[in-house]
Amino acid sequence: MKKQLYPILCIGILMIWSSCRNDFRFDPSTGNLEFSRDTVFLDTVFTNIGSSTFTLKVFNRSNNDIVIPSLRLGDGQNSFYRLNVSGRTGVGPVLGKEFENVEIFARDSIFIFIETTIDIQALTASETQFLYTDVIEFDTGVNRQTVDLITLVKDAVFIFPSRSINQNTGERITETLNFDANGDGNPDQTNIEGRFLNNNELNFTNERPYVIFGFAGVPKGETLTIDAGARIHFHADSGILVTSGASIQVNGEPSSDPDLLEGEVIFEGDRLEPAFSEVPGQWETIWLFDGSTNNVFNHVTIKNATAGILVDGNQDDVTKLNITNTQIYNSSNFGILARATNVTGENVAINNSGQSSFAGTNGGRYNFSNSTLVNYWTLSFRQFPAVLLNNFGVDANNNVFTNPLQEANFTNCIIYGNANPELILDATNNEIFNFKLTNTLILFENTSGNFSGPLFDFSNTNLYENVIFNDDPNFLDPNNNRLEIPNGSSADGTGVIFGNLVNDIINTPRALPRDLGAYESIEF
To answer: 218, 232, 293, 460: least buried by Cβ within 10 Å?
Structure first.
């Protein structure tokens, strides 16, 4: 019986004790709140694309529980910002703008979560970017305190597929690209979300950035021209697709400021926050389909894709892909994935690829000069070398086929990274496999003894001429894509005169004798 009465007695005592406390009496705030910051800078956003969520912490340093009678955005219901205050969404016709009676315990704090989606056209009709500001107001009158909110909003050209709702099923229908994917002359339904560019969209200028949702297709017989200084941003699962008979011409120019890259054409994701500036795999690829031709990239940066460039077919077309003065970084799979195709590259720098930085697969023709093809991706997460070459593939029915590697020439290049080896030659015995490395530095140590046969006869000058093995080029900061080499590097002055360009990737004149790689050596 005593054991049964004991818990009841304890509960009664607690009830009496709590009824005497004044802990749950909240006094009105007196304007003495403290904040984790007095200004919240929300990162740059594109018009009508939501920002990341930012946090403000509000402190009650006093010994009393307090209540904030009014917590609101300065522009009230018309503000482009929205708030969540410790899980509360607020009052009024539009939630997230105004709050009443917000409580903070003594010596405690609350979190305010801040987001924004801004329509720049509602702010100004003439500007391409606009600084939008508001304040969070805490209380009114003499107790009023504020925290400033600031966001840079950029206008953009948006390219996206049409979307509709099936009235019978309620299913969302998104426009997909329909074109000849396999070159047989018959349109194929590819189920790739996107749409073809209109005639008035085939010239990307540098006046406003472009934001692409889904794949932007270049129609047969058309050319997408991209002017110097243009900025192209991709939403997740998006890219550019150049169909059979179509072309892309990316005409960047040298930049006077290496930080601004004002003349460079830049392809990257649409998340502008600094935390996303180097995150791989934010968008898909620039896909040069079988049959596309006369594709040119000059003074270009491609970053944070799944595959920077995916190029297919036409291995006897010398205009298939000509790429110069271009850097491709942070690709979650490949920097360039080439399949039975033709690529000519000079002053090309590729690094930090989840698989290979350059893969010439299914045979083809590949010629690189003064290029830095390296890979410093996190070592434990990759199994592919910086450069991979083979002469076979697998078709849609999982049948293995072969195709000649007619040429793969690397002159004055650096093929290096944080794994060994960084060059893999994977050939079938019954198919052509032609390659040559000339005045090129490579990381290749046959420590496992697995590499033997004529492909790995390093004394054969028809395959390996003046090749430097395993000397660290001492890049400035390869993990952060700084691939400049110092004076005195093993890549300094060990090249030959070759190629069409007399300046390096950043337009520095090349000295004699030539350096290896995309960058002329400098004093660190």
So the answer is: 460
The residue range of the domain holding 216 is 202-480
Domain count along the chain? 2
271 SS3 class: coil
If asked whether residues 367 and 249 sit together in one domain, one would say yes
CATH assignment at residue 131: 2.60.40.1510
Return the percentage of the chain with pLDDT > 90, whole number: 78
| pLDDT on residue 120 | 84
pLDDT at 182: 64
* 133 lies in the same domain as 269: no
pTM: 0.87
Structure tokens at 475: 């890049």
Interatomic CA distance for residues 178 and 193, integer angstroms? 10
pLDDT of residue 6: 47
User: Looking at this protein, which amino acid is placed at residue 362?
Assistant: N
The reply to whether 14 falls in a domain is: no
pLDDT for res 43: 87
Examine the fold and report which residue of 93, 122, 154 is the final residue of a domain before the chain moves on.
154
Q: Locate the DSSP E strands across 8-90.
A: 27-28, 34-35, 39-46, 54-60, 66-73, 81-85
Do residues 39 and 131 share a domain? yes
Residue 62: exposure state from Cβ atoms within 10 A (0-12, 13-18, ≥19): middle
- DSSP class of 79: -
- Confidence tier at 451 by pLDDT (50, 70, 90): confident
Tokens of 131: 């600084």
Q: Summarize pLDDT for 474-507 with one digit per residue, the tens.
A: 999 999 999 999 999 999 999 999 999 999 999 9
Within-domain flag for 407: yes
Instruction: Work out the number of other CB atoms within 10 angstroms of the CB of residue 378.
Output: 10
Q: Is residue 170 part of a domain?
A: no
Question: What residues have CB less than 8 Å from 88, skipping those under 6 apart?
Answer: 99, 102
**Going by DSSP bridges, is the β-strand pair 392-394/400-402 parallel, antiparallel, or unpaired?**
antiparallel
Q: How confident is the model at residue 397 (pLDDT cuts 50, 70, 90)?
A: confident
* Gap between the Cα atoms of 64 and 106, Å rounded: 5
Does one domain contain both 99 and 236? Answer: no
pLDDT band at 138 (very low <50, low <70, confident <90, very high): very high
Q: Residue 19: pLDDT above 50?
A: no
- Within a domain: 315: yes
SS3 label, residue 192 = strand
